[in-house]
Amino acid sequence: MGKRVALVLAGCGVFDGSEIHEASAALVHLSRGGAEVKIFAPNIEQRDVVNHLKGSPTEEKRNVLVESARLARGNIQDLAELKASEFDAVIFPGGFGVAKNLCSWAVDGKNCTVNEQVNSTLQAFHSAKKPIGLCCISPVLAAKVFPGCEVTVGQDKNVDGRFPDAETASAIAELGCKHICKNVNESHVDKANKIVTTCAFMCKAPLHEIFDGIGTMVQEVLKLA
Fold first, then answer.
1. H/E element holding 90?
2. For residue 199, which of 145, 147, 158 has the smallest C-alpha distance?
3. What is the CATH number of the domain that holds 49?
4. What pLDDT digit, counting tens, does each position of 130-158 carry?
5. 12: annotated active-site residue
6. Catalytic choice (103, 136, 199, 203)
7. Do the Cβ atoms of 2 and 83 come closer than 8 Å?
8. 178 closest CA partner among 153, 155, 140, 149
9. pTM, two decimal places
10. How far is residue 134's CA from residue 91's CA, in Å, rounded to a whole number?
11. Do residues 43 and 65 lie in contact, with contact meaning Cβ atoms separated by under 8 Å?
12. Are 138 and 92 in contact (CB under 8 A)?
């Protein structure tokens, strides 16, 4: 029987929600791995709405659950309904929505607060010793909630201009966590905490390399489940 995995989204679109390619890659790899997936998102207002053509904020108001439903093809539930006891693992794709809607990292950095439902979800899976998969910017959720854990957001230096957000690694270290440098097609497994992370679009890389890296994260999550 396939593993039961919860996928938590943060909206729809890289600049104000979940990164669409990351969410899709996770779903493809989960499907290939025979997992039974249910999708969730918090029923809250987005921090902002960005015109993705212009790259600038608009005056619109949008709901994270309603926008995430676009990615889920309408088959989605309120994060408040997620019960860790019903799943073997949880995965969080990245995108600025994670840093804006699931926590306040985009504004407050390492001093951010984590959405209460997101925090309780992470704590529930961790307490039950069930694996947590995170990619792109979403490893900062684990760094904030689980001091001392190990995560990767790629490299801690802007190697060849491919890691423009390398300072995130330093902020993670300042939270008392260990940042592990990894390439885009790799993931890191914190065996003690059952946390699996990969950098995805934190690296400027071809889409297939990001897809493959997310694949390694999903495979490791399923192994631990």
1. strand 89-92
2. 158
3. 3.40.50.880
4. 999 999 999 999 999 999 999 999 999 99
5. no
6. 136
7. no
8. 149
9. 0.97
10. 6
11. yes
12. yes
